[in-house]
Amino acid sequence: MILDTNALSAMADGEAAIAVVLRQQKRIALPVIVLGEFRYGIAQSRHRNDYEEWLTRTLPLVDVLSVIEQTTEHYSAICVNLRRAGKPIPTNDIWIASLAREHGLPILSKDGHFDDVAGVKRVSW
User: Which of 1, 13, 29, 112 could link 63 by a cystine bridge, Cβ 3.0 to 4.6 Å?
Assistant: First the structure.
């Protein structure tokens, strides 16, 4: 399962409902895009040190997914399909969806716009 930024934040905040979902997963993956968004958020947080320590402990437990050439093929196809459907979504979320399609993993997210991406399954908590 791929974590979206809101899922990673909920995990960092210790939300019980997300812990239930994550315990059922064989693989937890974190797109490098989500890692960047999360680090940007904690850089502005008054709890920065706590979140940075949590992230340092958590990163060895997840697979960090990088964008590669194959990812760009999914990105292009998703962009075209969403544009034709008149359902644009944020660029970073297209990259996250591209990694989900590439790796055949569902996305754990509260963002319903992932439901508009063909070949991607969204799970909420």
Answer: 29
End-to-end CA distance of the chain: 13
Task: Output the pLDDT for position 100.
Answer: 98
**Domain 2-123, CATH among 3.30.460.80, 3.90.1150.10, 3.40.50.300, 3.40.50.1010:** 3.40.50.1010
Does the reported pTM lie above 0.90? yes
What would the DSSP string read from start to end of the chain? -EEPHHHHHHHHTT-HHHHHHHHT-S--EEEHHHHHHHHHHHHT-TTHHHHHHHHHHHGGGSEEEPP-HHHHHHHHHHHHHHHHHT----HHHHHHHHHHHHHT--EE-S-GGGGGSTT--EE--
